[in-house]
Amino acid sequence: MYDRDTAMLEMYDISIKNIRKVRGGWLCMAEDGLYIWQETDAGEERLQLEADLCKAAEMAGMTEFWQLSGGMGSLRMDHFIKNREEHYLTSDRFGRNFVLKEWTEGKECEVKNEEDLYMGAQACACMHRALKIISAEEYSDRLATAEPFLELWERRKRELVRVQRYVRKRHNKNELEQLIMKKTPIYLEQAEWAMEMLNGVSDQIDNEICHGDFHYHNLIFGKNENWICRSSRIHLGPQIGDFYLFLRKCMEKHGWNWQLAETLLTIYSNSNPISQVERQLLYCLFLFPEKYWKQINFYIQSNKAWVPEKNIRKLVQVIRQEEKRQNFLAHLNQFILHPEQDLLC
Fold first, then answer.
1. 310 pLDDT exceeds 90?
2. Are strands 208-210 and 97-103 parallel, antiparallel or unpaired?
3. Structure pTM?
4. What ranges in the chain are assigned the alpha helix state H?
5. Cα separations in angstroms, 293 against 212, 243, 297
6. Is 306's pLDDT higher than 70?
């Protein structure tokens, strides 16, 4: 049953009946339930911190918030298991590190299933309510603070300018490079506008405990238990950043459908009200051309002699969706400017 990747499971006080490979690790079926065995880059101190915070979120009433807002079953975060040496980290003789976590039977949140996305928005809100109860100051010396968005965006804007200059000097520009020359000025203008708007509220943004990687791949819905998993990026920062990541990925898959976005915003806000500063930050996050920058970043790090067809397709897809994205931003702007008129009150 065991191979090189799973032999270290013998260091745990669990009786495993079967193991199978799954995305992100190995699913372990034991007499007392399910576990997942994963390779990790984290050290013991970091795993202890994640374990403490996930447990604290549950103790702060995350499941109660979930059930009060209509969620079925319990809502949990990663639950780490210690080995016989009372460590979360287990290393093999090849120098690789592993961690064992509780798991549940269920399905990953399906981005095309709107009911799943409603549950995801609700789970995010309930997690944030629970994390607000935990004192961020108590963990400030152990948790990293996210890089301020203004600093991050300034660096990415410079990267866009650098790529633009580089492509301008190239002869015989390929299809991707022609698109870059045509569209980059438009997206640079959006980046500058987002930075200017964010500069007006940046000193009002609170840093709280965030999941750091909240999207549909990291949500598991089971019959009696629902899990927010893969907590390796927990940090201090604005919590609305978690919801932005979730909502942006949903919008990219649903053609920037404002009706869906409004529903998800309503669900989130009903359980965890969004302040005016958070509304403004959310708009700035969507205004900054994150997806365009990402595709350009792929280009600059690739072999310029041959650009993969899929990179061209992805950039074309971003550009094709721009009209729908602008329509989404117009609706979101109304949500920011006129909170008394929207459905979230």
1. no
2. unpaired
3. 0.92
4. 44-59, 62-68, 114-133, 149-169, 175-199, 240-253, 258-271, 276-287, 290-300, 309-320, 322-337
5. 20, 20, 6
6. no
